[in-house]
Design a protein that fits this description.
7 strands, 194 residues, two-stranded antiparallel ribbon, elongated, five-stranded mixed sheet, alpha+beta
């Protein structure tokens, strides 16, 4: 997927105007030296942070589906992600681990990280992020089951509200054999070291 290289100038200009207005509303002067370029920088940053809206995760996945070579379970651990909470537009970040049981096909490992990035680079909630990754992989290729574990830290809990610095949230979603066979879920969790 990659980051946005060429921003739509008109879109950047419009978003920057809104950031300048927000700076004024919170009591800042967007014309002071340290803030003169901030609205444009922030506009470009928000476009990068939300680039997942402008690419298709199914197409990303289907670019690298190959014949299965024989693994019983494939696990990619600790794919880092950065996202924005849709409730407060504050960052949350963490790691995603993905497991699947191939059924004649497998996916290129780097595509798993790209799929995580695609869904994370949107306004999100962690529960939906976990589910979207899981169900997209089930749709993209034949499998006997998919399991996704996501652990995140949320600045909306650390910087504001309850201000709990050491909190983390873990979410799981799974399909196929991972639903019907609890021992497979246990094996996945054991292999993650949780």
């Amino acid at each position: 997927m990659g980051r946005i290289e060429n921003h739509d100038d008109e879109k950047v200009r419009q978003i920057a105007e809104h950031y300048a207005a927000i700076l004024r509303l919170v009591g800042e002067d967007p014309e002071r030296e340290g803030l003169k370029k901030t609205p444009v920088r922030a506009a470009k940053a928000i476009l990068d942070i939300t680039s997942g809206y402008r690419s298709d995760p199914l197409k990303i996945a289907q670019q690298a589906i190959f014949e299965h070579a024989g693994s019983r379970m494939v696990i990619v651990k600790d794919i880092e992600f950065y996202s924005m909470c849709e409730h407060h537009i504050l960052p949350f970040f963490g790691r995603v681990s993905i497991g699947y049981i191939p059924k004649g096909k497998m996916i290129g490992l780097s595509k798993l990280a790209r799929i995580v990035d695609n869904f994370a680079r949107r306004l999100q909630v962690q529960e939906r992020l976990t589910s979207q990754i899981c169900h997209l992989l089930e749709e993209a290729m034949p499998t006997e089951g998919v399991i996704v574990c996501c652990t995140g830290e949320h600045l909306c809990m650390k910087m504001r509200g309850v201000e709990k610095q050491d909190s983390a949230t873990t979410t799981y979603d799974y399909t196929g054999l991972f639903e019907t066979d609890p021992s497979l879920r246990e094996e996945f969790i054991r292999l993650l070291g949780h």
